[in-house]
Input
Amino acid sequence: MKTLVCTKPGKFEYLTAQEPKPGPGQATIKIRRIGICGTDLHAFEGTQPYFEYPRILGHELSGELTTVDAPGFAIGEAVTFIPYFSCGGCIACRSGKSNACVNMKVCGVHQDGGMVEYLVVPSSSLIHGEGLSFNQLALVEPLAIAAHAVRRAALQPLEFALIIGAGPIGLGIMEVAGLYGGRVIAMDINETRLAFCRRHMKVQHTINPLKSDARAELLDITSGEWPTLVIDATGNARAIADGFNYMAHGGRYVLVGLQKNEVSFSHPEFHKREGTLMSSRNATKEDFDFVIRSISDGSIDVNKFITHTIPFANVREEFPGLLDPGRGVVKAVIDISI
Output
């Protein structure tokens, strides 16, 4: 089978490999769609933590089962899967936080992922397609990450929620926050992304901190009280540091974006707010089920996110261009069937 390998930062190579053979408790998926996420882009750039080369990228996946060892699943069924393979026995897994497993192996990060024709995964990770299209199923995982962040933040109806970063994960967080009844404020330095938020996400308040006084705008929007929830979806060190200054007294700050360096902030300022700082990592089956239901009932329309579709044979040539802000990429999906 054909595979696409990131051999080192900035370089892909198409290679041929044997079709994998599943063992007990495993399933084989014929990959149909591959969503490209920030993790893949950062790995290509060489800025992704927890990463080694060479590596086959890809964990936002959908396809059809060609072999399966799991009750309730059938060969030919359209599926996606939870790409965070947990051990089941560590302290996090025993407490229901398999998304933060001590021995986590993330598909496409810690082990080879889905830029392949066939992929073997644990049958326990499979998620029924429930009649969704391959495009819809490929976006379930990033939306589940968004759903997990909002659920972890315990967003309340009518609460002001500042989402920093209008990339795919940030947009997903805005989408889910809206379903929770939150009053979303989008912040980004890309005017095209902010326009997308206003046009397609129905976000009323957008801020570009390079073009206006972000603090003054936030105070005006919140009637002088600041947002009670701030979520960073940038993974940018400066943006993360600035986010501490935007949080209301008694507020929460959730870090979804990831960067390699240390995070520092003013202890007195954070302390006097009695702020809550937390991270949000991956997602759980509960979040996947929430997203599947929300797409099925029409609450979430994934089609508005997909701006670029790339044939598998063209990925090596076209992938670098996805890093160009001028191309207006919101979400790119690889179609491995063409």
Residues 70 and 133 are 22 Å apart (CA to CA). The radius of gyration is 20 Å. The mean pLDDT is 96.
